[in-house]
Specification:
Elements: E1 17-19, H1 20-27, H2 41-51, E2 59-70, E3 77-87, H3 89-108, E4 132-134, H4 135-145, H5 150-167, H6 203-221, H7 229-239, H8 248-258, H9 261-264
Antiparallel strand pairs: 1-4, 2-3
Helix pairs in contact: 1-3, 4-5, 6-8
């Protein structure tokens, strides 16, 4: 994990969806807002320069302070400046490697952006820097390479914790009991007598709730607001059916903490 003496962009909010450019900057704990986000060739060049995809790598002036300089005798004082710079060559080298990996996967169709973006002044040219993707591809790179910054390491830790909770129905995974193989159980169709008691959330139900959360996050990122909560629930229930059963209660809980307040004010579910 890279670390630096001066934190860059410590207040930038990290969401589940960002542009490729933003993810590459987040990967090295740098503030994405330093570059223009217009869909033009000129702005694209600026983004690529910050990523280190085109040279030269940038050196930032972080202090330019007027000072008084004394000569060796201490008798003569003249005005001058104290200039401090921050060399981001390591940041650029890493972010460029991440960008090239993602751009290649987008170009070959291995990675499908959640929202592709084309340049306004070159309508036939896809701009990988502005394509919107989820966290999964960037976290997969971080797990393989192990060189992500603090924000990425935090996201990885949260992802692993959610996986543990989902795998064990809401409780952290523990070591297998003595005498057990440690292998996951083979799914079986439960009879009425074998079904879990009412109120007990199964592993598949927990996984379905997490899948619903990811679906809602995607809708929010793309600003695709459902007509109402009834329609949103039925759509989510269908989408996550292969993962597990989604209850109305689980959907309401996820909806409440995921979508913006504006989505909650209208189109509430009708109650009989």
């Amino acid at each position: 994990m890279i670390r630096r003496n001066i934190a860059i962009g410590a207040d930038f909010p990290v969401a589940d969806m960002h542009t490729v450019y933003e993810w590459c900057m987040i990967y090295t704990d740098r503030l994405p807002g330093v570059a223009a986000m217009d869909a033009t060739a000129e702005a694209q060049r600026e983004r690529l320069q910050y990523l280190g995809a085109i040279g030269p790598n940038l050196v930032f002036v972080i202090a330019d302070t007027p000072i008084m300089i004394a000569d060796t005798t201490g008798r003569r004082v003249t005005p001058g400046k104290r200039i401090e710079t921050l060399d981001t060559s390591l940041h650029s080298r890493i972010s460029n490697a991440v960008y090239q990996e993602l751009a290649k996967d987008i170009e070959t169709g291995k990675l499908k952006p959640e929202r592709p973006v084309y340049l306004d002044d070159r309508p036939n040219e896809l701009d990988p820097t502005l394509c919107v993707i989820g966290a999964a591809p960037i976290l997969a790179i971080a797990e393989r390479w192990g060189d992500g910054g603090e924000r990425i390491q935090k996201l990885l830790a949260e992802r692993h914790e959610r996986a543990k909770l989902s795998a064990d129905g809401g409780a952290p995974i523990e070591a297998p009991a003595p005498g057990s193989s440690g292998e996951p159980p083979v799914p079986a169709t439960a009879t009425a007598s074998e079904a879990p008691p009412s109120g007990v959330r199964t592993n598949r139900a927990a996984a379905a709730e997490e899948a619903c959360r990811q679906l809602l996050v995607k809708l929010v990122a793309l600003n695709e607001r459902p007509a109402n909560t009834d329609a949103a629930f039925q759509s989510a229930k269908t989408e996550v059916a292969k993962v597990g059963p989604l209850s109305q209660k689980a959907f309401d809980r996820t909806w409440r903490v995921t979508v913006p307040d504006a989505w909650k004010k209208a189109g509430r579910r009708r109650r009989s």
